[in-house]
Structure formats: structure tokens, C-alpha cells
Write a structure and sequence with these properties.
With about 450 residues, the protein is an alpha/beta fold. The protein is built from 17 helices and 19 strands. The protein has two domains: about 15-135 and about 320-350 and about 380-450, Alpha-Beta Barrel (nicotinate phosphoribosyltransferase); about 150-315, Alpha-Beta Barrel (TIM Barrel). The strands form four sheets. A seven-stranded antiparallel sheet has the order 13-12-1-5-3-17-18. The protein has a six-stranded parallel sheet with strand order 7-6-11-10-9-8. Strands 16-14-15-19 form a four-stranded mixed sheet. Belongs to the NAPRTase family.
């Protein structure tokens, strides 16, 4: 039996064993869970939220099929009455979330789900999976955008992404963060992202000589003549491009760009730029790729390397220096009563919460405040309703609008946080009302449970 990515079986087993126990105990009152990050990785000054669109798609489609129920029955772990109840289960709850492309910080809820307990509990693993991965990639991609704000940036990550879904979602997340496009064709089709491609070294090697490879490709792809010039000798290939440009111009073909994928990218780019300019090709741009990340891109930009665009793959799509975030999805309210986890090193703030952001007169972020959801405070409220009673609210921003929002968010970051180097933490205050509620819950807890999870 095949299990699709939309299946509720794409979850941790303990979600369903808890659902069985909730069912047995008659526990299905309203529950609120919030998704947040406990701390930033050492290399990060901020994170960028992504993946909400896929979460809403998942919640809308949430259903157990007959095959799903048959598979669960064969495990012998679940009772017939419980399985029958799953046959009619679908998501009927509310979702509040910060907008995709918003920058955020530790303890700030990215998303809150309020629904009958069984629904809110069941979706935990997949919701975390969808938000976590795209947030990891978008946060890494945003740093590359900050390192090269004026360059063409293309996602090159399909071949080393951790699976096909990761390749698609990383293309989406990097585009959201400000990348120009992707080399992954399916992502372009699925998400409406511009698709870019050149050629591989194998194409050049397959020809008897490099010049013939370039000329054949130019005639085959006259509107997309980007030529890979580092298969043998980068500078010698650039000289061949000068000669080729004159020949193909008779057919109305203009060489668009050259790509360099190896060696000292900055030095090669300088030599190639000089060759192209002296050959009358100042309009031919230079594109670079090859194990790039924000640090290498930053250094190339700082050294004024004449590179117009970068193809970034593995180190972004796997977020090589910070491949995971300490995300948590925790119960904050059940049966309209606040809940607080007090585990050592993993205590949570209770109750449904809001995040308010203050900016200065130039629109630069100055501080955030974590407060109770019903508090009224100065600033911009970051969480907003995106799904009510299981139905997505109309007028939600599309990917292009979210990308514009992400660009504005990066511009609103204090300069210190835009740096690739660690900065002093951005201030996130906690309201007195929230602190007092946590203290009251701690004081009222039975002594025997004060140190338990």
C-alpha cells in the first residue's frame, strides 16, 4: 500500500496512540497548541517563517481513507470504535499564524492551532515538518540575499536535496526569501517560479571540441545562450566566446552569459570580464556556481568580483551550517484553561499568545513583545487568523506577495542583524500579564508535579 504525502499516516505513531487514549477517556475539548523556536542557532541573528501555505493545504485535505483505516486495524494497536471515529475526522479548527516571509525570534509563536484535542494533536508532526524545513531554507537563503542584494540568485539544489519533496519546497522557500528563480523545473511549474538553466560539463565533453559545443548550443537555444566555460581552460574558452559571438550574430543570436563553476571564481571572473569587454561583449554577464554559501558570496561581492549572478545549491538546500531548528509544538490551553510545561530547560509560556512588533520612524524594527492573546499593546500584531472553523480565509497572500513581504522584512532588520556575523540578540520582552499568569500556574501546581513535564 502506498501512503501519500497528504495521508494522516504521515505522522509519528504516538500521535495516534494518544488519540486512542483521548478517545477512551472522552477527552476532546478545545485545545490550543503553539509552534515556536526555543533558541536560534549560533550562526543566526533571525529566522524567516515559511511553509504556511503547505500547512493549510494539508489541514484542508486531512482525511483517513478506507485503506488508512485498514492498515491501522492490521497493526492490532487500535480499537474498532476508535477506528470508526477516525473515518469521519477532518480538521474543523482555527489557525493563527505569522505571515510567510516574516522574520521572527525565539519563543514567538509562528503558528497556533485551536481545535478539538484529537485534531490539534494529530497534525503536530506534519505541521512541524512542513514549517521547519522551509523555515530552515528560507532563513539560510535570506542571508544569501543580504550578502548579494543586487545579484541574480538561482536555486541549484535539486540533485543534493534530501529527497524530491525537499527539492521542491527548498526552491519555494528560497524564492520566498528573495532568490530570482530555480533550476528545478517541477518547482517552476508547481509554484510559478521562474526557471533557469545552462548546460553541464558533459555537454562540452561530448563534443569533439569546445567551440563546436558552444556553437551547437547557441543555435539550439538562441534565446538562452548561457555557456559553461570552465570544462578545460576558462580564459581560453572566454576567447572562443568572443569569436563565436561574431559568427552567431549573423543569425540574430546574442550570447547571453557565461558560467564559471570551479577554481578561484573571483580571479577567473576578472580575467573573463576583461576578455569579454576587450572583445566587444560588455553585455555578456558572468554567472558563478560551485559550493557557494552566504560567506563565499559575501566575500566575492566585497572583493568587487565582476559576477552578475550566483547559482547556490547544496549548502543552502541542506542549510549546511545550521541544518535544524529547535522547533516545539506545545499545548498552551485545554478546555479553556491555560497549560504550562515546566520541564527543566524546556519550560513554556502558558495560554494563547500574541506578538507585537514596534518599529521606529524609519520602519526599522526596534523590539517585540510576547503577550497574552487578549492583551492590547502598541505595535504591529504579527499573528493573524488564516483558517477559521476548518476553512481557509479568503484573500491570503500568494507566493509573489509573500516574497515582497519578505524583502520588506529584511530591509526592516536593524543593520547589526543583517550581518552574517553573530550580533546581540534582538529584544523580545514578555508582558507582565503573561509573567504573572505563569507565576500563578506555578504556585498553584501540586508540589509533586512542579518538576515534572
Amino acid at each position: 500500500m502506498k501512503v501519500s504525502l497528504d495521508s494522516p499516516l504521515l505522522t509519528d505513531l504516538y500521535e495516534l496512540t494518544m488519540l486512542q487514549a483521548y478517545f477512551d477517556g472522552g477527552m476532546n475539548d478545545s485545545a490550543s497548541f503553539e509552534l515556536f523556536v526555543r533558541s536560534l542557532p549560533p550562526q543566526r541573528n533571525f529566522l524567516m517563517a515559511a511553509g504556511l501555505e503547505q500547512v493549510l493545504d494539508y489541514l484542508e485535505k486531512l482525511r483517513f481513507t478506507e485503506d488508512d483505516l485498514a492498515l491501522l486495524a492490521r497493526t492490532g494497536r487500535f480499537k474498532p470504535g476508535f477506528l470508526r471515529s477516525l473515518g469521519t475526522l477532518h480538521f474543523t479548527g482555527d489557525v493563527d499564524a505569522i505571515r510567510e516571509g516574516t522574520v521572527f525570534f525565539p519563543d514567538e509563536p509562528v503558528l497556533r492551532i485551536t481545535a478539538p484535542m484529537r485534531e490539534a494533536q494529530l497534525v503536530e508532526s506534519r505541521v512541524m515538518n512542513l514549517i521547519h524545513y522551509q523555515t530552515v531554507v528560507a532563513s539560510k537563503a535570506a542571508r544569501i540575499v543580504l550578502a548579494a542584494p543586487d545579484a541574480q540568485l538561482i536555486d541549484f539544489g535539486l540533485r543534493r536535496a534530501h529527497g524530491s519533496e525537499a527539492a521542491l519546497l527548498s526552491a519555494r522557500a528560497s524564492y520566498l526569501a528573495g532568490f530570482t528563480g530555480t533550476a528545478t523545473l517541477a518547482a517552476g511549474v508547481r509554484f510559478g517560479i521562474s526557471v533557469h538553466g545552462t548546460m553541464a560539463h558533459s555537454y562540452v565533453q561530448a563534443h569533439a571540441n569546445e567551440t563546436q559545443a558552444f556553437e551547437d548550443f547557441a543555435h539550439s537555444q538562441p534565446a538562452n545562450t548561457t555557456l559553461l566555460i570552465d570544462t578545460y581552460d576558462t580564459e581560453a574558452a572566454a576567447r572562443k566566446i568572443v569569436d563565436l559571438a561574431r559568427r552567431v550574430a549573423r543569425y540574430g543570436i546574442a550570447i547571453k552569459a557565461v558560467r564559471i563553476d570551479s577554481g578561484d571564481l573571483g580571479e577567473h571572473a576578472r580575467r573573463v570580464r576583461r576578455i569579454l569587454d576587450e572583445g566587444g561583449l560588455p553585455y555578456v554577464t558572468i554567472f558563478a556556481s560551485g559550493n557557494l554559501d552566504e560567506y563565499r558570496v559575501r566575500d566575492l561581492v566585497a572583493a568587487h568580483a565582476p559576477i552578475d549572478g550566483f547559482g547556490v545549491g547544496t549548502r543552502m538546500n541542506t542549510s549546511a551550517d545550521a541544518p535544524y531548528l529547535d522547533f516545539a509544538y506545545k499545548l498552551v490551553e485545554y478546555a479553556h484553561q491555560p497549560r504550562r510545561k515546566r520541564s527543566e530547560g524546556k519550560a513554556t509560556w502558558p495560554a494563547r499568545k500574541a506578538v507585537f512588533r514596534q518599529v521606529d520612524r524609519h520602519g526599522v524594527m526596534t523590539r517585540d513583545c510576547l503577550a497574552l492573546a487578549d492583551e492590547r499593546r502598541d505595535g504591529i500584531a504579527l499573528l493573524e487568523p488564516v483558517m477559521v472553523a476548518g476553512a481557509r480565509r479568503k484573500g491570503q497572500p500568494n507566493l509573489a506577495a509573500s516574497r515582497d513581504h519578505a524583502r520588506r522584512q529584511l530591509m526592516a532588520l536593524p543593520l547589526a542583524l543583517q550581518s552574517l556575523e553573530p550580533a546581540d540578540p534582538y529584544p523580545v520582552a514578555v508582558s507582565d500579564a503573561l509573567k504573572h499568569l505563569a507565576q500563578r500556574l506555578d504556585a498553584s501546581a501540586p508540589a509533586s508535579t512542579k518538576n515534572q513535564e
